[in-house]
Design goal:
186 residues; alpha/beta; Rossmann fold; 4-stranded parallel sheet; 8 helices; 4 strands; globular
Length: 186
């Protein structure tokens, strides 16, 4: 299976950021973007443009499905991401994390390393200004494996109606809330 490395990302980041003058008093914030599987460059560019316009530099770290299916590889990759965030290029910069889908899992693996040695990574945790999680991967490894198998092998799947309560938990939540607040509609 494919196991991406951060070498390409690190070299790109190193070459891009060595040319920037970062003021120690007001360092430019960095956005760590962890995109979804199979994200197209045009889609990612739209998000990058938003962050560039608001004054961020953007570091994109992609994930592979193998890192989700083989957690040991994901944990190893999370360690490499952590090393990159602690490198000289990034270690003094405020950080915002924007993770999509499986990227949230990858950042979770970074946090596993942080939790094992909170003293060592205190500086990193203090630099994190916020987290944005979009369309996180939910469920178990088994569900992810089944979904990946279906996607790669053209397995037919029974489509559920779009308004099904099991596919629309927010409507289900609001319906229950309304019933609790106002049990007898007027």
């Amino acid at each position: 299976p494919y196991r991406p490395s951060l070498d390409k990302t690190y070299e790109l980041a190193k070459s891009c950021f060595m040319n920037f003058h970062v003021s120690p008093v007001h360092p430019k914030p960095i956005l760590l973007m962890l995109p979804w599987l199979g994200s197209r460059p045009q889609a990612i560019a739209k998000y990058c443009d938003i962050y560039f316009r608001t004054g961020f530099d953007v570091l994109i770290v992609e994930s592979a499905v193998s890192q989700f299916l083989w957690p040991r590889w994901g944990l190893e990759y999370g360690g490499h991401v952590l090393e990159l965030l602690e490198s000289e290029c990034f270690s003094q910069r405020p950080l915002l994390v924007h993770a999509f889908s499986i990227g949230g899992y990858t950042f979770g693996q970074v946090l596993v390393h942080v939790a094992k040695d909170t003293q060592r990574y205190q500086g990193l945790t203090n630099r994190i200004r916020g987290h944005i999680y979009d369309s996180l991967v939910m469920g178990s490894l088994e569900h992810m494996a089944n979904g990946t198998y279906r996607d790669n092998n053209s397995v037919n799947v029974l489509e559920w109606p779009r308004q099904s309560l099991s596919l629309n938990p927010i409507k289900y939540f609001w319906r229950n809330l309304k019933m609790c607040v106002c049990p007898h509609p007027t």
